[in-house]
Structure formats: C-alpha cells, structure tokens
Amino acid sequence: MAYKTILLNLDIDRRSTLLMKLAVDLAQRLDARLIGLAAADVPPPMASADGMVFDGELVECERENIEAKFAELRTKLEQLAGTAVELEWREELAIPTRHVTEAARSADLIITGPPDKSASANLYRSTDLGSLVLNAGRPVLVAALDAERLAADKALVAWKDTREARRAVADAIPLLTLAQEVAVVTVEETEGSISSTGVEDVAAYLARHGIKARAEIIAGHDDSAALTSHARSMKADLVVSGAYGHSRLREWVFGGVTRSLLGENGLHRFMSS
To answer: Which of 59, 80, 120, 169 is the most buried (most CB within 10 A)?
Structure first.
C-alpha cells in the first residue's frame, strides 16, 4: 500500500511556498509523483444595484490576473521540485472546489492548505475544504499553518467505529508508517460506556502493517476538545480522522469533530469520508 501520486491544491491568493515545500518533501520521501494544481475563475457578469454591469474589459483584466497567478505558482513549484520528484503542472479557469474534486481521480492523496477565513467566501478563487473532503473520494491532508514539512513522528488516530473512520485508518497507512509513535484514541463520555475492543482492533490492524500503535480511551464530554488536547499533550503533529460522520449541515449547525479539526491549524489533519 503506497501513494503513487499526490495532488497538491494551490489557492491562487495564498502564500504557498511552505505548502509547496511540504508537498515536495513528502512526495520525495514516499517516492510519489506530484501534481501541482491551481484553479480559479472569473465571476459571471452581474448587474449592480444602480444597473452597472461588469464589462468585457474588466472580465479580461480579471482573467489576466488569474493567469499571472498561475504562472507565478508554477514557476515557484518547479523551482522547489527541481529534479527531486516527478512533477506535473495543471491549471484551469474553473471554480476551484469543483475542479480539485474532479482532479482527485488522478491521485491517491490530496494535499491542501489550512482554511483561510479571509478568502473562504470567494468560491471563484478559493477551495471550500468541507466540500472537498466530503466529495473528493480521496483522503485529504490539510497542512498545518506555516508548516514546510510533515514530520509525522507522532500521530493520533481519532477513532469512532464509523465507516469514515475505518476508511481513514486504511487510507493513512503510508503516512503512519513514517511515525515513531501512533496512538489510536477514542473518547469515552461516561466511564465504562465504550468497550476497548474497537481501539484494540485498530491498533492490532496497524501492527500487522508494521506500525507500532497503542490503544487509548480518554475521558471527555466533548470529543473535539478531548482529542485536540490529547494530541497536544503527546506532541502529535498529525491527526487522522474520518470526516462528517453526521451530515455536514448538522456539523456546521451543531458542531462536530470535523468542523473543529478544520479549525486546528497548528496540526496536520488527515481526513477521509
């Protein structure tokens, strides 16, 4: 089991040098091919309150801006990759989330940057991470903020006996093999309410793939807070989890582990759905 191709998603308005370094380094360590991808689009013409409409010249200016951003990103990635990894570049005038989701068919793993609140409302120039994780059909590694390497020396597997969590554990094996310490952790809200069989089975499963893992049950009434606190206490830099065990709408209304982890930009977060 290995990642043969990694897809690096680059939003055009973000500082991406460190993310590029992380992706190139990981592709080199895993002997994987790297695809760099950037997508953005020009909003369709629309009338303003006073009847003004974006004219053709403004649309063309916006398109030129996007294409210039594409060129900058491509040049920087090619410089960083050099001859260290096999690299392919893709760019497209398209809505980013939709295009990255479609391009996921080409890769075993998607790497993307952490959420950018300042850009999150612009669906024409930035990726909606929730939609990407939910629809890509591939695992997504959301890099920690300002990280240029995924050490993965210590990893926490957030375990809940769901389809998404089972998928995430299997998908993460190539990364977990890099770790020196792996904890498979589940949260017990009421003492004695959860059997340890689930986490022990997962730890044993990982052991059969050559990954030394331990099973842990921790107490807490808030799964998200308990897991992130435990990740910090063990100094983990990678958290593996299933995504959206409940509907995405329910998570955004009521909160949930996926939503909380997407806000934990000090950690690398690996998610499958």
So the answer is: 169
Q: Which among 89, 87, 73, 81 has a CA at the least distance from the CA of 125?
A: 73
- The Cα–Cα gap between 104 and 56 comes to 33
Q: Are 50 and 131 in contact (CB under 8 A)?
A: no
- Output DSSP code: residue 42: P
User: Per this entry, what is the length of the chain?
Assistant: 273
- Give tens-digit pLDDT for 135-191: 999 999 999 999 999 999 999 999 999 999 999 999 999 999 999 999 999 998 765
Q: What are phi and psi of 27, to 5 degrees?
A: -60, -40
The DSSP 8-state label assigned to residue 31 in this structure reads T
Mind giving me the DSSP string for 99-164?
A: HHHHHGGG-SEEEEPPP-TTTTT-TTTS--HHHHHHHSSS-EEEPPTT------SEEEEE--SSHH
Q: Would you call 50 helix, strand, or coil by DSSP?
A: coil
Q: Contact, 266 vs 145, CB < 8 A?
A: yes
